[in-house]
Amino acid sequence: MAKLDEKIGFIGGGNMAFAIGSGLVNRGIVKAGQVMASGPHLYNLERWKTLGANITDDNAELLEKSDIIFICVKPHILEPCCLQLKTTYAPTPRDKDKLFVSVLVGVKLPALEKHFDFIKGLKMIRTMPNTPMQVGEGCSIYSPGSYVTQQDLEKVHLMLNALGLAQQVPENMIDSITAVQGCGPAFVFTIIEALADGGVKQGVPRQMALQFASQAVLGAAKTVLVTGKHPAVLRDEVCSPGGSTICGVHELEKGQLRATLINAVEAAAKKSIELGNKYS
């Protein structure tokens, strides 16, 4: 596994940032000492300290000391964050070598470049990872902005791909894909919980039902990826004529599970676009 010598900073130390940072450390891409996270309240960054990373409540300090900076604040925090940096950060000739990676939902590259206009020759990559990165099974997409080089893209791909699957896509596809891979884990967690509840209703102990439901989802997903078969084909292979599975599938159809999931993806995509329009 290739390693990076750069110092990695995270402006915003929340769940997504920690999923990426801890994943990079646990996979050996960087050492904990190469990582720094910032946030307004140091007590919220304790898990970063436990990881062995550096912490600060000064975004300007993080920007100064980092080579690759992940922007992990909420979209509505972006503008005040950048306004603060404009007054506290002293630009240096090294800024043209720094690489910025945004994980802000919906916020497009032109808006990101506008907010960081105090960095000359800004190299910004817009990305959307997901939280399963923390266990090495993430799914990330990314698009480059102005001044980004092929070498920069290779570094970002190395980091994201080490934590699961990573792929460069056109920026105009990011909001739609985000609704599948970024929001998708939350939808699947709900499905796992529901499957486990069904097991409990049938008398299965709670922890056992949760374990079996989780493994069933993991196994089903891996079967799709490894065999390359369409999910409908794999489903039909499980549904024996007159068997229990087809009876369960019938109930899913009556409950409009597929339509509900399609609607969930559509709603998430619309919200991502709405956020982008609001904060661009």
- Which class best fits the helix and strand makeup? alpha/beta
Assign the CATH class of the largest domain.
Answer: Alpha Beta
CATH architecture of the largest domain: 3-Layer(aba) Sandwich
Number of helices: 12
Q: What portion of residues is helical?
A: 40-55%
| CATH topology description of the largest domain | Rossmann fold
The total count of strands amounts to: 8
Overall mean pLDDT? 95
Question: How would you characterize the largest beta sheet?
Answer: 8 strands, mixed
* Overall domain count: 2
Low-confidence stretches: none
The geometry reads as elongated
Strand order of the largest sheet: 3-2-1-4-5-6-7-8
Q: How much of the polypeptide forms β-strand, as a percent range?
A: 5-15%
CATH level-4 homologous superfamily of the largest domain: NAD(P)-binding Rossmann-like Domain
Distance between the termini: 37 Å
Radius of gyration: 21 Å
Compressed to H and E, one letter per element, the order equals EHEHEHEHEHEEHEHHHHHH
Describe it for me?
The protein is an alpha/beta fold and 280 residues long. It folds into two domains: 8-173, NAD(P)-binding Rossmann-like Domain (Rossmann fold); 184-275, Orthogonal Bundle (ProC C-terminal domain-like fold), CATH 1.10.3730.10. The protein is 53% helix and 13% strand. It contains twelve helices and eight strands. Helix 7 (174-182) crosses helix 12 and helix 8 crosses helix 9.
